[in-house]
Amino acid sequence: PRRILSGIQASGALHLGNYLGALKRFVEMQNAGDPCYVFVADMHAITVWQDPAKLTAQTREIAAAYLAAGLDPSKSVIFPQSAVPAHAELAWIFNCTARLGWLDRMTQFKEKSGKHKERSSVGLYTYPVLQAADILLYKATGVPVGEDQKQHLELTRDIAQKFNNDFGVPNFFPQPEPMIQGPATRVMSLRDGTAKMSKSDPSDLSRINLTDDAETIANKIKKAKSDMDVLPDTVEGLEGRPEAKNLVAIYAALADMSREAVLAEFGGQGFGGFKPKLAELAVSSMAPVTSEMRRLINDPAEIDRVLAKGAEQARETAQPVVDEVKKIVGFWQG
Ligand code: TYM
Q: Where is this motif: 'KMSKS' region (predicted)?
């Protein structure tokens, strides 16, 4: 079977893009019967400074979101990245496999470091190498992510291949497949259909947070940017209409429908008719997740039990792999 692995950074509130592009897909894959390793990327989070108390809270919050969305600790291994030291060990070895030229091409570093490259942490630069270690440590073969992670997955494949070649161990690390599928691989801002929905957008109206209540969700959809035209009958008709395209994609992902099916229902209608239906759907599909999340956050003991058990299982899977890597590299075994 495929071994699925993915993670979400513990760096602030989750939004609808994380939910539709990643979280909801993890649950689908778990329920399809593939073994899933799903972690909270707290080591990635500290590539930009995090308040320590908040980091702990955000780690529990992501774990709560995993459980609330339907990840089941008896089927999936749910753990904090930092609780498995082998991530850091393998990341160091991969720092010596990856080439500067490869990392220089990473667009996310360019975006995140902005004009102040020299003041960015070294961790932010080498972030995708740690991501490769996360994936290859479990010899994962399927990695469900949003479109923004595509380049990091390509780097992971390059690192796997170079490691295998450098040490003459063909097929030691598999080539993991990026699983970037479905209608919501790139959810856009509700205020600007050409910008990605993201945690760092200063406008809270640009995104739906997993912590928003029903009224807030409905209000944000009502205020979402749209255009004056009616919805088209075909997906092609959405071209050049980024806001319409985004709202239709969100509807499709929430309803588990294709965009074609959404347009078959709403084609010819204006946003005055479509938006209330979208708001209703968003509220009814998110409310159970957000309310369960709130309940879990108020009971951290339950979350901590899940994370502790997951960490133990993850260490059991990871340890033999990192042990073998150290042997391959020639580290003293004793
Ligand atoms: P992060 O925490 O930024 O985002 C978590 C997941 O959400 C997806 N995503 C989106 N999908 C659709 N539309 C959007 N607007 C949107 N915004 C975010 C992301 O693509 C991601 O799948 N580097 C990763 C975390 C990570 C990881 C890994 C992922 C660390 N190690 C190993 C997979 C495997 C990240 O920062 O995701």
A: 196-200
Q: Which atom of ligand 1 is nearest to the CA of 130?
A: 31
Task: For ligand 1, say whether the CB of 196 is within 6 Å of any of its atoms.
Answer: yes
d(CA 31, CA 75): 9
Does residue 290 have its Cβ closer than 6 Å to ligand 1?
no
Which of 3, 4, 8, 109 has the most ligand 1 atoms within 8 A of CB, as the residue to mutate? 8
Q: Is the CB of 243 under 6 A from ligand 1?
A: no
Domains of the chain: 4-179+300-329 (3.40.50.620), 204-295 (1.10.240.10)
245 a catalytic residue: no
18/40 Cα distance (integer angstroms) = 13
Q: Is-catalytic flag, 110?
A: no
Residue 119, token pair as written in the block: 């003041």
**Spatial strand order in the sheet of 142-144:** 76-80, 36-41, 4-9, 142-144, 177-179
Whether residue 54 lies in the annotated active site: no
Q: How far apart are CA 247 and CA 270, in angstroms?
A: 12
Query: Model confidence over 187-224: pLDDT tens digits?
Result: 999 999 999 999 989 999 999 999 899 999 999 999 99
CB 65 within 8 A of CB 211: no
Q: How far is CA 300 from CA 65, 78, 236, in A?
A: 13, 15, 47
Task: Return phi, psi of residue 62, to 5°.
Answer: -65, -40
pTM of the model: 0.97
